[in-house]
Structures are given as C-alpha cells and as structure tokens.
Design brief:
Layout (H helix, E strand, L loop, with lengths): L9 H5 L3 H14 L6 H14 L3 E5 L2 H11 L7 E5 L5 H8 L3 E5 L10 H6 L5 E4 L11 H11 L2 E5 L7 E2 L2 E2 L6 E5 L13 E5 L2 H11 L20 H11 L2 H19 L5 E2 L7 E2 L5 E5 L4 H11 L22 H4 L4 H8 E4 L7 H16 L1
Helix pairs in contact: 2-9, 3-9, 4-5, 4-8, 10-14, 11-14
The site of pyridoxal-5'-phosphate has 15 residues, from helix 4 and helix 5.
C-alpha cells in the first residue's frame, strides 16, 4: 500500500487543538479587543522569555519584523546590509525596500548558514548592519559574527523566522544580536492560523521605537515623532499562538527525533549529503535538507513524485541570482560559490512533528532504493 507523505501537515497539528482554539476565540470575541492588547502582551512576554531576551514586540509578519528592525536600526539610502545569499527572499527584500543596498555573503556547506569569512570580506565603510539567518532551524555561528560586528560597529539583526527555540552555546536564537526577527507563518515551527511575527531585543530604547513604528510612530497624544506604519499583531492570532507555544517543546522534540532517525537510517549512502547539527547547536529542524550529488537531485524529486512524497527545493535560486538584484554593485554579488552549489543540489524532505513511522519509512524507502540504482 502506498503511504502518501505531505511535506508538512498543518491540519495534523492544528485540528487536535480545535476545541482549545474555540474557547480562546469565544473569550476574545467576548472581550471585544481585537488589535494588540492583553493576548499580544502575554505572547510577547512568553516568546521573549523562551529565547532569553528582555523584550518582545508582536508584529504583523516576519517580513515586517525584518523591515521594522532595519527601520529602528536607522538603515536607509547609502547604507549596506550584509546577509547570506542562500535564504528566503524577505531577508534581502526588506533591505532594498528601505533604499539601502543588500550585500550577499556566501554560506558554509556543512550548516547552510552565512560564512563569517565571506561576510567579513564584504564589509565596507558603508556597512551598517548584518542579518545572519538561522537557516532551516539551526543557529548561525553567532560567536564569530558578534566578534566581527563589534569590531566594525555593525548592528546585528537575527533572522529567526525558521529557528524559534533554537540555541547556540546555550543562548537562545533571537537573544544574541541587537534584534531578533521571528515569523509565525503557518509552516514555521511555531505556526499561527495566518500571518504574524515578532521582534525581540534586550535594549529598552529599541523596544520602545519598535512599539512606536508598529503603530504609525504615534505617541499617546496623537503626535507623530517618526513615520511608522500599521505593523500590529491581532489578539486572535496571539491567542491561538499562545496555545501552540505551550506545545512547541514537544513539536521540536518530535522534529529532532525524526531528524535523528533519518540520520541513522540514511547514513553512509554514497552521493547523499545529510544535514548536520553543528558543534554547540541545538537544531530545531524546520527543514531537513539533503544534498544530492552528480546532478541527480531532480531525478530523486521525480521518484518522490511517483511515490507521493512531498518535497521542495529551498532555495532553487540564490539572492545574487534574482533578476531584481541584477543592478546591485559588483561587490554585493561576487564571491558566491557554495550557495550556488547548494541551490543546485538541495532538496528538503518531510520532517514535521506529526509524521508517522510508516510515513517516515516510506520516505526512507524511496531514498534508499533510489541510491541502489
Ligand atoms: C518565512 C521567512 C521570513 C518571512 O516571514 P513571513 O512571516 O512569511 O513574512 C523571513 N525570513 C526567513 C528566513 C523565512 O523563512
């Protein structure tokens, strides 16, 4: 019998919580408070405490969290911001939207995360900030990056969209830079029932500015000291996220168990690169991403397709290859090679917490059979 395996199954995670969602919905409906308010404040405290930061500020999405972080860091025209070439588009899009210049650094083959040496080589007198991304659920090398940033007086904005709950040398992701940007998009490890995001910081001044910009830069007396926008989080979304936050530790444990089983069952296959948990890292496995050598990636994907196994290429193009960034200065685009190899060889497979043993067996079966031929 063929066992179908989706890449992720949000219903398997959300539907068991339906009655708790329903109660929460009724409570918020009765309260009549739908934007910011007590639910959002509680979620802010809970997420900040989870990652070890002093403040959390709920926002409309992960993309907006990145945008607002750059705004409060004062990034604008003339500034350069360095981020990895291998990440989701929003990381760099936010920089460009503020009229600043995204500059792309190469990544490391063993972690998929930004290469500190490549980053350092891209620093110019115009560099204002860096955005390390904790890709696929694993922290970038924050020790190296903090050292480089402090030497060059750069703001660090951590992109924690894929890595809530991840740790590096026992520090929570989102607590190691100046600001941490989180996403609660439904497929993230803490996935909401819609869009949502958050910034974390230890700096009270930055936290206050984020709260201001979230609401049009408005002070209490309707005076606007700065121009912000509507980047607010809804009470309903925060309420649902708080229910799921109570399960996050279990979700992450299940992802880690699935990843460990893949590593055990798929180890030692020629031509198959398995993702690794780096020294000092606590990986949260938002994605389990294989590297397929010898240009056989698309053939493996075809085999997955026949077997009904969900998979996706994160990411088929690097940021320096995106048409919209074609006209960036040369130093923003050059020196990228590992990221190009990854884009050609990567494929992410199901690792979601609710996958059954039979489902994982099906994935393992397709891969082992593929490499026997
Ligand atoms: C999902 C994601 C974002 C954007 O978050 P949204 O909530 O979808 O706006 C930013 N960066 C990375 C690395 C992401 O994976």
């Amino acid at each position: 019998m063929k066992v179908k395996v989706p890449l992720i199954d949000v219903n398997a995670q959300n539907l068991p919580l339906a009655s708790r969602f329903g109660e929460k919905f009724q409570g918020i409906l009765n309260s009549g408070n739908f934007v910011l308010g007590a639910e959002v404040e509680s979620l802010e405290e809970e997420v900040a405490s989870l990652c070890g930061a002093r403040f959390g500020i709920g926002l409309s999405s992960g993309t907006d969290a990145l945008l607002v972080a750059l705004m409060v860091a004062g990034v604008g025209p003339g500034d350069e911001v360095i981020c990895p070439a291998f990440t989701f588009f929003a990381t760099a899009g936010s920089v460009e939207r503020l009229g600043a210049t995204p500059v792309f650094a190469d990544v490391l083959a063993d972690s998929f995360n930004i290469d500190p040496k490549s980053l350092e080589a891209k620093i110019t007198p115009r560099t204002a900030a860096i955005i390390p991304v904790h890709l696929f659920g694993q922290s970038a090398d924050m020790q190296e990056l903090r050292q480089i940033a402090s030497e060059h007086h750069l703001t660090i904005i951590e992109d924690v969209a894929q890595a809530i709950g991840a740790r590096f040398l026992d520090h929570g992701c989102g607590s190691m830079g100046d600001l941490g940007a989180f996403s609660f998009y439904p497929t993230k490890n803490l996935g909401g029932l819609g869009d949502g995001g958050m910034l974390t910081t230890d700096d009270e001044g930055l936290a206050q500015r984020v709260r201001g910009i979230r609401n049009h830069g408005m002070a209490e007396d309707y005076r606007h000291t700065m121009v912000g926008g509507n980047f607010r989080l809804d009470a309903l979304q925060a309420g649902m996220l708080r229910i799921k936050l109570g399960q996050l530790e279990d979700y992450i444990s299940a992802r880690r168990a699935n990843a460990a089983r893949y590593s055990k069952e798929l180890g030692g296959i020629d031509g198959l690169g398995l993702p690794l948990e780096g020294e000092g890292c606590f990986h949260t496995w938002n994605q389990f991403t294989l590297r397929i050598a010898d240009q056989r990636r698309d053939a493996l994907r075809a085999a997955f397709g026949v077997a009904g196994i969900g998979n996706e290429v994160y990411y088929p193009f690097t940021l320096d290859q995106q048409p919209c960034f074609r006209d960036l200065p040369e130093h923003a685009l050059d020196g990228i090679s590992v990221a190009h190899e990854l884009a050609a060889e990567c494929v992410s497979i199901p690792v979601f917490p609710e996958m059954t043993v039979a489902q994982q067996d099906a994935v393992i079966g397709v891969i082992t059979e593929f490499f026997q031929n």
